[in-house]
Amino acid sequence: xxxxxxxxxxxxxxxxxxxxxxxxxxxxxxxxxxxxxxxxxxxxxxxxxxxxxxxxxxxxxxxxxxxxxxxxxxxxxxxxxxxxxxxxxxxxxxxxxxxxxxxxxxxxxxxxxxxxxxxxxxxxxxxxxxxxxxxxxxxxxxxxxxxxxxxxxxxxxxxxxxxxxxxxxxxxxxxxxxxxxxxxxxxxxxxxxxxxxxxxxxxxxxxxxxxxxxxxxxxxxxxxxxxxxxxxxxxxxxxxxxxxxxxxxxxxxxxxxxxxxxxxxxxxxxxxxxxxxxxxxxxxxxxxxxxxxxxxxxxxxxxxxxxxxxxxxxxxxxxxxxxxxxxxxxxxxxxxxxxxxxxxxxxxxxxxxxxxxxxxxxxxxxxxxxxxxxxxxxxxxxxxxxxxxxxxxxxxxxxxxxxxxxxxxxxxxxxxxxxxxxxxxxxxxxxxxxxxxxxxxxxxxxxxxxxxxxxxxxxxxxxxxxxxxxxxxxxxxxxxxxxxxxxxxxxxxxxxxxxxxxxxxxxxxxxxxxxxxxxxxxxxxxxxxxxxxxxxxxxxxxxxxxxxxxxxxxxxxxxxxxxxxxxxxxxxxxxxxxxxxxxxxxxxxxxxxxxxxxxxxxxxxxxxxxxxxxxxxxxxxxxxxxxxxxxxxxxxxxxxxx
Length: 642
Fold this sequence. Notes:
27% of the residues lie in helices and 22% in strands. Helix 14 (509-520) links the parallel strand 27 (497-502) and strand 28. It is α+β, with helices and mostly antiparallel strands.
C-alpha cells in the first residue's frame, strides 16, 4: 500500500500499537539515541518512538523500521517474503516464452501495471514546499547527535538525490551528513557509491554538482535509497513497485535540475563544488558497532530548506547490533533473493544475513548442489554481485539445512567440512567501514563450503571419523596463562569448534598459541576450528563474541592451518584451522591503521536518561545496553587508546 505521507504511516503505527509517544522534553544530543538504543534492544525491536518535545518546532520519529512487523508495514506487506514472491512471479512471467497472441495479450495488464509504478514529475510545488525558510538554517532542525565521540550532529536518514552529468539518470542513495554550520554539511559518500561516481563526473567537467536531500514522506523512500539496485535503475521505480503507486516528484526551487518526492517532510537543496577543499568528517558511531574514524569528504552547501506545515523529522541510530538498520537489511535480504536467484545464482534457495555479521561481514547461502565445485561457483558469483562484493565471510549450506537454526546449521556445516580443503580465501574490495583490513577498502574474504562433498571433492587422508573426546576448559586456562576465557561447550552440541579469549603480549602470539594448543591439548583432535577473540570478550556470549570476531578478522591475513599426522587415527591427517579475531596493533601485529573503539553511551547520558525514565511514560525501566560493553573499551575516545 502507499502512504500519503509520513504522518499517515505514524497514524498506522499508532493504531497497530507500534508507537510510543514521548511528551517529556528529550535532548536530541545523545538522549534520544540512548532511549532509542534501550527500546530497540528490549525484545523484538521494541516500538517506534515519536519524541514530541524536542526543543525545536518539529517532533522526531525514531525506530520506525525497527522490527519485522514495522518493516512490513513500511513496505505494505504482511511478510517480507511476500515481496520476493511477487518479484519472482514477475520474472517468470516476463521470461516465459510468448508462443501465441493470447500469451502476449495476457502480458498487457502487467505492462500497464509497470507503467503505473514509474515516477512522475508534476508541475507546481508539492506539500514538501509548503514552507520555505527565508534563510536556510540547519540549526532549526532537531538533528540528533548519536554517540559521545561523534564528530557532531548527523542527519542519519537522508534520501540523497544526484544525477549523472552525462546521462541525466537519477540516483537516490543514503549517506550520512555531519552538520558543520547553518548551511554546511559533509557528504559521506564512499568511493564505491554511485553518487561518488556522479561527483567524479562533475569534477572532471569543473562544474558544481546539484544535490537534494529528502527527509520523511512515504517510508518506502528511505528503504529504496538503501536498496542495492543495479546502477542506472531508478530507486523510485522500486518505490513505485513496493507501494503499488507511482512516486510523485516536484522540481527543487534552487536546484531545478533535480526532482524530489512531493510528500516529503523536509527538502534540503544545495550543491557540492568539486573545487572546494574536502572537509574532515567524523568520527561517527557506525552500523558495525564501532566508530568509523574521521576522513576527508566533500562539502555540501545548503541553498534552500523547505518543509511541510506539520513536518516530522525522521532519524535513526546505528551501533552495536541489533539496531533498527538490521530490519532494513533483512528486507534487502528477502527482497533481493529472487533477483539473485533468477539472474545470477540459480541454485540458491535461501539466504540469511545474521545480525552479528552487520550485513556484509557474514552471509549464509543455502543451495541445491548437483555437481562437484558448485559451492565455489556460488562463491565467485556472489562475490561478483553488486554490494555482495563487500562480503567478508560466506557460508554455503545444503538444501536441507535450516539456515536460521544456527546451532543445527553449524553442526551440519562442520560435519561436511574438511578445514584444509573446504575453506577458501581471497582478497578483494571491502566496505570502507571495515577496520580490520590492512589497507582501507581492500582485504581478505573467506568462504566456508559446508555442503556435502562429491567424490571428486574428497581427500580421504583428511577424512577423520568423529572423535568423541573432550577438551577441558580448565586445562586450557591452566596450561596457557594468556587465555582469559574459553568456551568449550560447542563440541558437546556436535560443533567441533572452540572460542578462546586471549590477552596478546608478543608478535605472532595467536599463531604460536594455536600451534601449541594443537600440539599439547588432550582431545584436540576432536576440534576442527578455533576462533580467537579479545581477552575482554566473553566467549560464552556467542552473539557478542561472533560480532566482535567477524569485525576484527581479515580472513586471508588472520588464518592459521595446523596439520600433523593424527594420533587417534593413524594414517590420517589432523587439521585444525585457527582464525584470529583479536584487535590488531602496531606493536604485536605490525598493523598501521588506527583501530576504532566500540560504541557505548557515556555515563552522564546514561544517568540523565535513568533519572527521567519514569517521566517518559514508555513502560518499565530498561537499563542501558551500553553497560555490558564498558569493560570492552580501550579508553574513552573513538580511537583505541593502549
